[in-house]
Task: structure prediction
Amino acid sequence: MVSRASLNIDRLVSAPPAIEVRGIAKSFRIPHERRDTVREHFLHPTKRTSYEANLVLRDINFSIKKGERFGVVGRNGSGKTTLLKTIAGIYRADAGEVVVNGMLSPFIELGVGFNMELTARDNVIISGTLLGLSKRDLEERFDEIIAFAELERFVDQRLKNYSSGMQVRLAYSVAIQVPFDILLVDEVLAVGDAKFQQKCAGTFDEFQEAGKTLILVSHSPIAVRDYCDRAILLEDGVIASIGPANEVVDFYLEREGLTQFKDLNR
Result:
């Protein structure tokens, strides 16, 4: 288990929330249209499509203190990524509101903004510029970005020839160079190898010591237990459990019949 930076509970209790999620709900419309033949397409070109509402999040409420490392766990389809994208403002909630106190940096989808036809060198410059880094910032931090991603040998190789692990290392290395108060991370630990996961854990400790807030969404309950202070368990779009990360994860493992993993890496 990765050692964590000591957490000052009194400071977290007294500080204003970094994020408040107040009763948010989010649904998507699933289209339904049946046209069995090409002839029907020509005969009924304006035929209406019916829609079915798919409610993904329902009445979600929680707050996250400044400097906290907060995890979100749950099965596939439970609403984890939708919640993260709603907090980030990528999705607009149907009801409720999200209050963010600080500069937010979302690291949600692998390679968003990357051009697969360009080299890592070019992508660092373009992505960093889009994220607000100046030319001087990029010049000063370029070697550090590439070194953290462990891509020195491949810096002039096109990204289309990179593995998914190489891409996520590069994307994360760029993302953490941008000034932020709150970092949203979706499954970065699932793609990287063990060494990269250790490096990420090290940055999580540094962020917390600097008073920065982390929200980690992961399919791995063990990662959430090891790296987070508190967590929520999502089930079918609602919060089934909230509290200390180790308690939420143990509850989740018991619900899933995976109690053999409860002592893993403790």
